[in-house]
Amino acid sequence: MDFLFLAEAASNQAQGSPGGTALMLGFWVLVFVILYFVMIRPQRKKQQEEDALRNSVEVGDDITTIGGIVGKVIAVRDDDETVVIETGSDKSRIRFKKWAIRSIDTPDKQIAVETKKEKKDKKNKKKVGEEPETEKNEETED
Hints:
The protein is of the alpha+beta class. It has 2 domains: about 55 residues, no CATH class; about 70 residues, SH3 type barrels (Roll). The chain is built from 3 helices and 5 strands, in the order H-H-E-E-E-E-E-H. Strand 2 and strand 3 form a beta hairpin. Helix 1 crosses helix 2.
C-alpha cells in the first residue's frame, strides 16, 4: 500500500515539475533492484546448486528422481544427458534425463555436499568480518 502512495505522489509531482520524473524513475529502479535480490538471485543460486548436483552423478550412486523413483545408477551418458538406473528386485533398468534427478542418496555424496556448504558458510563469515572457527592441527611426533 505504501508503494502505491509513493507512486501516486511521484506521478503528481511529475506533472508539476521536471524533478518528479527522475523521482518516478528512481522509484521503479528501486522496485526492480528489490525484486532482483528477493526473487531472481536466490532462484539462480538454487538452480546452479541443482545443476552441480546433477552433473556430479556417477555410476554406483543411489538417486531419487522427481517422480519418486529410487534406483542405482548403472550408466551416465553425457552425449544426450541421460542416466540409466536399475531399480527394484527384478533389476529393471530405466533411462532418465539428468534434469529429472532430485537427489543423490549415496551417503558419501551427501557428506560431500554438506562439506561444500560448510566451506561456503566459512567463506561468508570471513567476508562479513567474523572470525572463523580455527581447527587445531595436531602433529604426531615419531
